[in-house]
Structure formats: C-alpha cells, structure tokens
Design goal:
The protein is mainly alpha-helical and 170 residues long. It has helices at residues 3-19, 69-75, 77-81, 92-124, 138-168, and strands spanning 29-32, 38-41, 48-50. The protein is flat. The longest helix has 33 residues, at 92-124. It has five helices and three strands; from the N terminus they run αβββαααα. Helix content is 55%, strand content 6%. It folds into two domains: 3-50, no CATH class; 90-168. A three-stranded antiparallel β-sheet has the order 2-1-3.
Amino acid sequence: MTFMTSLHTIAASVALLLAGAAHADTIIYKCVDADGRIEFTDSARRNCKALDLPSTIPAPAKAKSAPVAGAARAAGPAAAATAPADFPKISSYQQKNRDDERRDILNEELRSEEKKLAEMRREFNGGEPERQGNERNYAKYQERVILMRDSIARAEKNVDALKREIANIR
C-alpha cells in the first residue's frame, strides 16, 4: 500500500467515523477492487470486509460559549440589563433614525407588494382568468389557475408579514 493510499484510507475512515456519529448502528465495509483501490461503504459487496467500529463515538468537548439571548430573559431583568463593556452603544437619536429608515423601506416594500397583489387578483378574475392562446388544453389552463392562486396566497402572506414587521418597529 502506498503512502497516498494509506492517507486516503485514513481520511476516509475519519470522515466515516464523523459521519457515522448520527448513525452509529450502521455497518461500514472496507472494499478493495481489482486495482487495489480501497473504498468504504455501507453496503456489502464482493471483496468487502465489515469493519469493527465502536458503536458510540464520544462527542467532542464543548467550548464555553456566550449565553443565548433567551437565557438573559429567563434569568430575569437584572441579567438582561447588563451588557458587556465592549457592546456597541448608539444614541436614541441614531436608533430613531434607523427605525425611521427601516419603516420607510418596509412601507415601500408593502406598497409594491400590495400593487402586485392587486394586479394578480385582477388577472385572476375571481378564479376564471382569460385563457391564453397556448391553453387550448383545459388541463394546461387549470394548471395556470392553480399557480395563480398559489401566487396570490403567497403575496397575501407577504403583505401580512410586512404589516406585522412595520407594527413591531418602535
């Protein structure tokens, strides 16, 4: 076995071990073809040998991480009031400007989405849009009607989401 083949074998074994963490009960086979190439697989084939791997793989040690945003709320108001010293601070004036800009952008998106929704509803014509020249087949027409209905429902959800987002701005 050459050095590169050995290196590939080790890399494949490590990859399989890491991937196998979720499915530790899967049997892994080492297969060698006529040219001596090694392949690892989860299906038994000719010239394959089952590997004896541990059934459980220990989880890597967890690094100490920053607290989750929800954890501060759960700890109480005193914990939520404290912020790290390097936390960026902006003035209320800057925050108001940012909120106003965000509101303007969302209002513009809302107007655009409402305009698009009104156009789609007009074209939909209460579920009976005009047939197009390439829709001599009724099934093709029905398919377009279904797509239009789905597009209208999606646009309505977008409008609702934009309205909620605007209402959430301070």
